[in-house]
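In this supplementary section we document a worked example of the pipeline. Step one takes a protein sequence of length 211 as its only input; no multiple sequence alignment statistics are reported here. Step two produces a three-dimensional model, which step three serialises into structure tokens for compact storage. The input and output of this example are shown verbatim.
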Amino acid sequence: MTRNKTKESPPLPTPAAEAQPASTGCAAEADAADAAQAATANLQQELDASRAQNVRLLADFDNYRKRVARERSEIVKRAGEEIVAELLPVLDHFDLALQQAADPEAPFVVGIRMVYDQLVAALGKAGLAAIQAPGQRFDPAIHDAIAYQPSPEVDEGCVLLQTRCGYRMGDHVIRPATVIVSSGPPEPEADPAAEAAPEAEGVEGADAADA
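The serialised model returned by step three reads:
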């Protein structure tokens, strides 16, 4: 009698074995997401660094442009001041000629004054201005003192007389004004009669002693 052998069925997979591939896939996806997030963060940092560098470059270029414009303006300004400084002796000669004119209303003198006024006006448009010195407090930055004189009318340390006009362009002094400064009121003169009185008394006393 033949015994029927039953075939053994293969073992069924356990729930843990079925869950293992799923958990492995989730871990891979999480790692990929973390890697993508890290890469995005690195790219953002690089982008921020590039933007900051561009901002610094733009700021440096703007400062350079302003500095070049300022230096160019200073060069033009200094060149103009040098030209004006060369013309100051011409103004001095015109002024001296007008002061020495015997007849201020003579046609020749009137013509010289017109040319002088036109020259002063043209230089004034270029920024030249005379320094007003008489009566002002002496300032070594704009005044050049050549002497001190007593004065009962002008306070000590103030300009008594201007011997040569000074000029400035803006805040820059082209030439200081040459001035004479007041040293204050003059000292009172001694009274000759008061000085002679003690001498007379001394002589009389000596005569009385001899007698």
